[in-house]
Amino acid sequence: MAKIQLSSSQKKAAHFDQGAHLVVAGAGTGKTRVITQRIEYLLKKQSITSNNIVALTFTEKASAEMVERLGDIMPLGYEEPWVYTFHSFADRILKKECMEIGLDPSYKILSGPDQWLLLRKYIFKLDLKYFRPLGNPTKFISAILTFISRLQDEAITPEQFLEFAKKFKSSSTDLDAAVEEKARWEEMAYIYDKYTQLKIQNSKLDFGDLILWTLQLFKTRPNVLAKYKSQFSHMLVDEFQDTNFAQYQLIKMLFSPNDLKDSTTRSLLAVGDDSQSIYKFRGAAISNILDFKDDYPGCEMTTLTENYRSYQEVLDPSYRLVQNNNPDTLESKLGISKELTSMVGSSNVKPKIIRLDTLEDEVEFVVSTILDLIAREPNYTYKDFAIMARANGHLDPFVLALRSYGLPYQLVGNRGLYDRDEVRDLIALLKILIDSHDAISLYRVLNITTLNIDASVISSILSTARYNKTPLWDVFLKNPDPSLDLIKSLIEKYQAQITKDLPSDLLYNFVTDISYIKQFTENESIEGNLSIGNLNLFLEKVKRFQLTFKQETKELPTVVDLIDYLDLIMDAGDNPAQSEIEDIDTINLLTVHASKGLEFPVVFMVNLVSNRFPTRNRRDKFEVPDELLSETLPSGDEHLQEERRLFYVGMTRAEKYLYMLSAKNYGGRRDTTPSGYLEETGIKETEVNMLDLKNALSQLSLFGVESGFKSLTGRPLSNGYEPKFLSYSQMQAFNMCPLNYKYKYILNLPAPPSHALSFGISIHDTLRDFHNALIIGADTSLESLLNMYAQNWQPLGYEDADHRDLRYKEGATLLTNYHADVIKNKPKHLGLEQSFNLTLGGVRFYGKIDRIDVFDDGKESGIEIIDYKTGSPKNQKEVDKDDQITIYAIGAKEALGYDPKKFSMYYLESGEVISTTRTPEQLEEKKKQVSAVVEEMKKGNFEATPGMHCSWCDYKDICPYAEK
Where in this chain does the record put each UvrD-like helicase C-terminal domain (predicted)? Predict the structure, then answer.
């Protein structure tokens, strides 16, 4: 790969030695490049070890992207620095240190719905007057949790808030109102305190807790803080403008202004742009970036204004818009200029503001313009277009239009998993088992495509039920049509299993029996692949529910428990993101928030009218009192400033074409008012002849969209296949059967629950927790080990309860023997579950080593790599040739810098340990073999290789080539 050339300002930001450095990185100026080059500079030029560098991001996606980019510029093998989100970073520290402050290191992290369920579970055990109306006891739960989250963002503990409530004095002149206001604050403080206690009692933390408890750890245990300050000599913070007060406190505790002022070996790089601060609703404090230079006296600053994304015609009006946020900007405060200069140049294409009559006109304009540009711009494909709105709901009419014209599209970063047809089908299948008189679910089940029930049969059932005023279920059972026989028998079969089978097992078997997934695999399409992804997401959610239910109740859930859970979390407003497919040629529909960090040659910003963009200022039901806020509040209208920054983010996603659209009417009685931000751009409105556009679209409807246009198949972006990363398991699957690899790792088809996999994960997770306890000096008694086993036990995929119970007992016996062995031999650990990152065959290769020990058996000493196995033992000859060991040897040597003397497979069920070695020649030969496999993958030919392995293949029921 060619060496990346930095501009002079980027180089200044990436290549400094010590102290604090603020990088004000405008849109499209290469901030991620600066961060990755900074890490490379520290590792290569400064010879800093990876363990001394921490880089913090805001999303898992950004963290993964940073790791990927580092992989492109670093040597073939290297140990990754601490690249984490703030929450993952805090979680890693707490997992290791939280016993210092009395927390359980095996805590689980609560999702939003789980928080709601926990508070709901105990709502009647709390002494409440104001926030539990008996007519609707759960009315305030979501608002209370949002308020508590905001307190956590401000680093306010329950104790501090209780103190505030006790001392609170109302400004109201009405004595009764003042007394009630104080009582409400006291009740809210009581809830915060009790909710925190409930989480601790249940070994649970929420995301806000991760930061708050880490701050508490560092404040109350100076020795722990000193340890991490000693470890981390260099910190990098991405999207600094989106940090909240608590996160900034965490940064300042590890890299205090005084430490940096007096040090020649420590550095802090903060990268951000106040013009792109758009997460106030998540607690982001823009004052952090505005005050950074005051907090770190002597801080160096670099302003990146060279834009590598957009033409100047896009940048100029964007800048005019955001200038209206002065004086609450870095430009005003520091006297700098953030006006962006395009490195792409100028274009004869100007951004357009277009005002149309109706929503239908707006939709038709977008579709027509997409088709026109695809015809006129030879290099443009569907992926180059983005339709962006302020809210998800504003995109629905555009989805319907794209679908009706057969144009490939996908929703990016969009919620609504439970609204997808395929997920609704699965929920209906479950609901009809527990409530046969659920007519809506029954109707949905009868319409499932793969059941092949004729529409006339369904219509007959409906009309008979309506005419005779008879339950739909009764009419369905009496209808003799043969096409109903399969679903009747399956409902009867699985109704008998609802208290015996785990929901995930039952659901997978049910959908397999009706060949449900085949409809998405027979004729591969974008929509089919997205549906498969959504099914996977839903099944994973079901599995997580099962594990959580078991941990909390010590019982296994039934389908009834799952449906109760789904009903509750949907009532709580939970509706997770849908599946997405990367590297596919589709039109992108997304909210402006979801567009952050993305770029597109053509951008349509739609529905740009007052009360839509900017939105109305919908304040939280409970707001943190100003006297508790630590951030500096702006002088202007905070809401309108944030909405303006969001508008700026939307505009600066465009590379060349930018269309800003509004309609006079969206179905209401009154005409709308265009967004005030449109006028602030300084762009004049463009007139459009809708009659010509409508005529063009009507011709397309007559002759088909493909006439004169490119194929609309939503094809992948390359003819071959380029794996983003590989693991040993992936390579093993490809070598066994390329079609199996495609099903599992490209299409991500749901696989049947596997008891062997569940057992292996249960044992591995237990040993991880046990050896972590050994390292930190926690309880490592046999009783503690078996308690860990009970917590980590995964009950999925077993034949029945007897099979599950017998396997559990075998695991307990296995661990009892293992415990005796560990206590006797007292292993010395260098690492547990150590990840490595390599480049093999031009592809990133990832692996995780169970244990890295130091051994001394009297004959020799050195480093030993240990891999746990729960299957049948191999013999010595097989271990000597084992591919996984060879790849781990490459990873340990080239990525982690170890030179292991031996590699051992620990067969846990027999207690047998078989060790082997690897020569440099074996490692080089394996690299060549991996490269050859990668080259085969890149051809994109995933042909089936039927054989004996078909009998245990996860996909034998849907694979047309499987040997029966």
Answer: 319-597
For strand 53-57 and strand 82-85, is the pairing parallel, antiparallel, or unpaired?
parallel
Ramachandran sector of residue 608 (left: φ over 0; alpha: ψ -120 to 50; beta: rest) = beta
Q: For residue 607, with 0-12 CB atoms within 10 Å meaning exposed, 13-18 middle and 19 or more buried, which class applies?
A: buried
Residue showing tokens 């910003």: 605
| Rounded distance between C-alpha atoms, residue 588 and residue 384, angstroms | 8
Q: Is 31 annotated as a binding residue?
A: yes
Cis geometry, peptide bond prior to residue 378 (ω within 30 degrees of 0): no
φ, ψ for residue 300, nearest 5 deg: -80, 155
DSSP 589-618: EEETGGGTT--EEEEEE---BTBBTTBP--
30 is annotated as contributing to ligand binding:
yes
User: Tens of pLDDT along 367-409?
Assistant: 999 998 988 888 899 999 999 999 988 999 999 999 888 888 8
Q: How many CB atoms lie within 10 A of CB 923?
A: 15
What is the C-alpha to C-alpha distance for residues 563 and 497, in angstroms, rounded to an integer?
A: 15
CB 762 within 8 A of CB 794: yes
Q: What is the pTM of this model?
A: 0.81
> Is 27 marked within a binding site?
yes
Question: Which residues make Cβ contacts (< 8 Å) with residue 266, sequence separation at least 6?
Answer: 18, 19, 233, 234, 255, 259, 260
Q: Which of 594-603, 614-623, 938-947 has the lowest mean pLDDT?
A: 614-623
Residue 760 corresponds to which tokens in the numbers above? 């292996």
User: Binding residue per annotation — 32?
Assistant: yes
Residue with tokens 């997460």: 279
- Mean pLDDT, the chain, as a whole number? 88
- pLDDT tens across 454-499, in order? 999 999 999 998 888 889 999 999 999 999 999 999 999 999 999 8
pLDDT in tens, 16-66: 989 999 999 999 999 888 998 999 899 888 888 888 999 999 888 777 777
Distance of CA 183 to the CA centre of its chain: 40
For 755, half-sphere exposure in the C-beta direction (CA atoms, 13 angstrom radius) is 14
Q: Are 241 and 274 in contact (CB under 8 A)?
A: yes
Q: Rounded to whole angstroms, how far apart are CA atoms 317 and 564?
A: 52
The annotation status of 26 as a binding-site residue, yes or no, is yes
**Contact by Cβ (8 Å): 192, 151:** yes
Q: CA angle, 219 as apex, 216 and 220 as ends, to 5°?
A: 85
Model confidence band, residue 767 (pLDDT cutoffs 50, 70, 90)? very high
Name the residue type at position 649: V
Whether the CB-CB separation of 7 and 306 falls below 8 Å is answered with yes
Backbone angles phi, psi at 365, to 5 degrees: -60, -45
Helix (H) or strand (E) holding 468: helix 455-468
Nearest C-alpha neighbor of 417 from the set 537, 526, 508: 537
Task: Return the residue matching tokens 């569940």.
Answer: 758
Q: Is the pLDDT of residue 79 over 70?
A: no
- Judge whether 29 is annotated as a binding position: yes
Length of the chain: 964
User: Are 109 and 211 spatial neighbours (Cβ–Cβ below 8 Å)?
Assistant: no
Does 780 belong to an annotated binding site? no
Mean pLDDT, rounded, for 97-118:
88
